[in-house]
Write a structure and sequence with these properties.
Number of strands: 0
Largest sheet: none
Keywords: Cell membrane, Membrane, Transmembrane, Transmembrane helix
Number of domains: 2
Radius of gyration: 31 Å
Low-confidence stretches: none
Structural class: mainly alpha
Subcellular location: Cell membrane
Oligomer: single chain
GO cellular component, one term: plasma membrane
Pfam family, one: SHOCT
Shape: elongated
Distance between the termini: 95 Å
Membrane topology: Multi-pass membrane protein
């Protein structure tokens, strides 16, 4: 008995279409990740980057698998390094935007705490308090 035509199994066609869409999206995602890693990598020369790009685009399955085998372990290191750099840039921007000098209220609170603990005398507290308020 011959195999039935594909129109006899519409559910199978739906699953096959879903699989094809998934594979297509997966291929584009891998292509994006690998090309991003290629151009992020500082240990590759321009010719190396061009070679990997051509290899991955024109021989996609072999190129992607080869790249993941050859350079896969260091992909995570480059990704983590870029994340650290972005984190440091964000932290420095936030610190710069917020200002690194403490406010006068913070300084007065610290002075009051020092006086209460007996580290400084009341006279020293008043002198420092005058200094903080005059700097405003």
């Amino acid at each position: 008995m011959p195999l039935a035509a594909s129109t006899d199994y519409p559910v199978l066609n739906v699953f096959w279409t879903i699989f094809e869409i998934f594979a297509f999206v997966l291929w584009f995602w891998l292509l994006f990740v690998i090309l991003t890693d290629v151009f992020r990598s500082s240990d590759l020369s321009g010719w190396g980057k061009a070679g990997w790009t051509i290899f991955v685009i024109f021989l996609p399955v072999i190129g992607i698998l080869t790249y993941l085998i050859v350079r896969g372990p260091s992909m995570h290191e480059r990704s983590a390094q870029q994340a650290r750099q972005q984190d440091e840039a964000l932290r420095s921007y936030v610190q710069e935007a917020a200002g690194s000098t403490p406010s006068s209220a913070d300084q007065l609170a610290k002075l009051a705490d020092l006086r209460q603990r007996g580290v400084i005398t009341s006279d020293e507290f008043e002198q420092q308090k005058t200094k903080v308020l005059s700097s405003q």
